[in-house]
Amino acid sequence: MPVTFEEVSHEFHPGRPLFRPISCSFAAGTITGVVGPSGCGKSTLLAIAAGMIRPSVGTVTRSGDRCVWVFQNPHGVARRSALDHVSLPLVAAGRRRRDADLDAERLLTDFGLADRADVPFSALSGGEAQRLMLARAVAAAPELLLVDEPTAQLDRPMAAHVNTVIARLATAGAAVVIATHDADTRRACDEVIRLEGPR
Ligand SMILES: Nc1ncnc2c1ncn2[C@@H]1O[C@H](COP(=O)(O)OP(=O)(O)OP(=O)(O)O)[C@@H](O)[C@H]1O
After folding, report:
1. Atom of ligand 1 at shortest distance to CA of 195?
2. How far is the CA of 99 from the centre of ligand 1 (A)?
3. What's the pLDDT band for 162 if we cut at 50, 70, 90?
4. Cα 104 to Cα 6, 99, 144, 158, 192, distances in angstroms
5. Residues 45-96: pLDDT tens digits?
6. 44 CB near ligand 1 (under 6 Å)
7. Ligand 1 centre and the CA of 110: distance in Å?
8. Which atom of ligand 1 is nearest to the CA of 72?
9. What is the location of CATH 3.40.50.300 in the chain?
10. Does the domain spanning 1-66+143-199 belong to CATH 3.40.50.300?
């Protein structure tokens, strides 16, 4: 069980909690959706799950150490190629560069980016850059994958494809948590946490 929340909430300003305390588990092999209106605290909940924010209320229990967070706004190295971005976590994990590149090419194909392998990050579209970040996240083989709005910049067919690839990652054993406004993504989740305001 990578992460468990017990009665967790958070307040950036004293006396103004973002959401009612929640208790849940992000289990290996499952996809959990986090939904609610803009500003209700979805990204904050991901940051708590990642261990980047200590909640002001409740207890978080975490096991395992491979956590990857795919941000809503993709960040990459401007001059590095798409292939480099996906190869790097594989090389960092000990793969030979040639093998890493082969795996990275396969992942780029999975995410519809086969023809963008040699393109520098700065020349990718927003949707391509976001898919690249997902491909890189998969390359890192995370136990806990946190994804903020994975389909926000994608058309429906590509969004459906990305949801399928994320589902495959969960099937391979990752605990996946997705903050989303997208109804199709929500339907692909095993559990849905709806964040509600404090009152
Ligand atoms: N570091 C911070 N300090 C103070 N307030 C913050 C901080 N981070 C977020 N907030 C505020 O907390 C609230 C929740 O933000 P959060 O980004 O978690 O919401 P969200 O549900 O992910 O929003 P969206 O759907 O628009 O991405 C917002 O009002 C935001 O302005």
Report:
1. 21
2. 40
3. confident
4. 38, 8, 20, 19, 31
5. 999 999 999 999 999 998 877 888 988 888 899 999 999 999 999 999 999 9
6. yes
7. 32
8. 27
9. 1-66+143-199
10. yes
